[in-house]
Amino acid sequence: MRRAVGQHHGDLRRALLDAALAMVGEGELVALTLRAVARRAGVSAGAPYHHFADKGALLAEVAREGFVALGEAQAACADADPTQRLARMGAAYVRFALAHHTHYTVMFLTPPGQVGGPAGEALQRAAMATFETLVAAIGGANPALPPSLARQRALLAWGQAHGAVEVARWAQHLSPDFDAEAFAVGVGRACVSIAQAPLG
Description:
single chain, 200 residues, mainly alpha, Arc Repressor Mutant, subunit A, Tetracycline Repressor, domain 2, 2 domains, 8 helices, 69% helix, globular
């Protein structure tokens, strides 16, 4: 049943985010508007504006949640030695992306710096936090790297893992014997190889 503005909905903000996630998960990203999200959540068309300025702000919050969750997955790898930490982080990235594909899709819709307002700023902080954690892990695995090169290799490692996720999604459907866990572990090892490649 649709509710008029002002009627109790419990956690309206959460309901709207969940509705947006459901639409993305069902392949309805193109059709996603605040009005469509409101309809999906069972509230009035104006209700989303109590929490989100526009569609971009709503999706920015979905993406921010994803980066926060990714950061938690990174933090769970912190008790290993520096090289093992990086390997575990690379594997954790793949596991996270495959397990939370809807959030992951929204996380990379738009570069964080291109989303305006407070929602965009919050997204940028969350995204940068995950990147800085990776930079630190790269530097830990290869202390000889100067900071600028550690950042460059962090981007390369992230690109490696990000591309691997796309391949894994295809492989899951094309190969019945695809081993996602072994694949994730291999991506972690590849990240270490990027970090520890000789200078020059």
